[in-house]
Amino acid sequence: MINNVQLFTNKTSKYDHTTIVSRRTNQISTILDGLLKDYQAHTRPNFGDGPTKVHLDILINSFGPIQDMDMSYTINCYFRQGWRDERLQFAEEVGVLSLSTKMLERLWRPDTIFYNSQYSYLHTIPTSNRLWRLFPNGSIWYSSRITVKAKCNMNLKNFPVDTQICHLLIGSFANSALDIQYNWRLGNNKSVNFDTKVLLSQFDLIQYPQYDEITNTNGRNFSVLRADFVLKRHMGYYILQVYVPSSMLVMLSWVSFFIHREATADRVNVGVMTFLSLTTLNFDIRNYTAAVSYLTAIDWFIIMAYVFLLASLLQFAFVHYFTKFGFGEPLTCYQNSFDEDLLDENDTKGNDYNLRPSIFHTDFTN
């Protein structure tokens, strides 16, 4: 008997719970049908009574890579927008509604874009990474997970000891500041945040301030939000890959100063091999730096290394040309008379002598 009562109680509880859920579902469906009955999705909220205010904030999952070759950077983030549509107000006791994104297609949404993006895409695996919330006062909170590759205009004159500022520009595609006004939801310098600590391979993220501004395009004012990512480049990689090898090649060329002057082949080989090695290193550097029309700091360093290598070769050529072969003595205007006096002295002995070779290469016999 007791078991039958418990079974009846459980069935009654399940039935009551199902009934409550069914009633709430019907209530929400009735509310949504009423909200969308005369709703015009092509008309923005607050039309004819000031601009629609759109609030933004960004949570960045990953930052990078940062490409010098095409001057771009990539971010993966949760892009969150919020605005109020008074046409969607409903009873406060219903609470916040979390609905399918399919319904969002039937509502007005701001035409927000990234002005300096090269390409962007919404993550859709395993399902579309979007969600939205509808509040009783008509406020809408819309979040999506996206990846953006944006243009970053870099000044590489100080490369690789440079600091770059990469902008992220956000605004409306077609609506001017009279129609849509953007602002940071949490205020300037607080609305762009990172999910984890940022660790970049070649840069340190120094700061990322945010601004809201009005820009003029084709005679129309547009509301624009700007985030500046200040990036300072790491020097360690370039010290090990460029500066240290180049300096060692220059010092290696100085070895020729201690090689005997008459060892022409050895001295020339040292100079030429260091010159060619530096050229190979320079070509390797060009594989991962942008092709710009001006000289960078690393270009000036390589040029000075070339100058030192060339100077070591010219020094050997100068010494070899202006000293006598065999003795390393400077040439004098008395070379001819010195050889003639030595010839006369040898003739008196009646013997054949071979004079030491000189730069005149004259043979005398008895």
TrEMBL record:
Keyword Transport carried by entry: yes
* Membrane topology note: Multi-pass membrane protein
Report the transmembrane regions from the record. 235-256, 268-285, 297-322
Cellular localisation: Postsynaptic cell membrane
Q: Which GO terms describe its molecular function?
A: chloride channel activity; extracellular ligand-gated monoatomic ion channel activity; GABA-A receptor activity
Q: Which Pfam families match?
A: Neur_chan_LBD (PF02931), Neur_chan_memb (PF02932)
User: What is this protein identified as?
Assistant: Uncharacterized protein
Q: Which organism is it from?
A: Adineta steineri
Lineage, opening ranks: Eukaryota, Metazoa, Spiralia, Gnathifera, Rotifera
